[in-house]
Amino acid sequence: MTPDDVAQACADAMWADDNATQHLGMVLSDVRAGQAVMTMTVRPEMTNGHKICHGGYIFTLSDSAFAFACNTYNQRVVAQMAQVTFLAPAFEGDVLRAEAREVWRQGRGGIYDISVTRDDGVKIAEFRGHSRTVKGTHLPEE
User: Fold this and answer.
1) Structure pTM?
2) Of 101, 121, 95, which Cα lies nearest the Cα of 39?
3) What is the side-by-side strand order in the sheet with 27-32?
């Protein structure tokens, strides 16, 4: 298997048990070694009192893209720390795209940057996640 084949197989295994991501209507549109792209449409129940997308949903979309990107090497990986900077609002009906890419990975740690854009191309958030590998794999080890 190529590294991207392993990434896709790991994503398929994770997706099968990822109730939160599926419940929010997120779509994993691309996954490769150290990278992932997820989209989500802002639904009415995701908006706050300002009629904009609640930041927690933007964080969750980013976190899910982060999770799929850092779990592409057949090692189980969790978030150790994450932060988000909100740059512009998103509104009901907007399709948000979170693009995650690996910045650094060594030993049990990794750093991933996730950019979130609206469907009109406006960048609405930047997220940085630090990952930590834990015991276990997604696929049987040969």
Assistant:
1) 0.97
2) 95
3) 27-32, 35-41, 95-106, 109-117, 123-133, 77-86
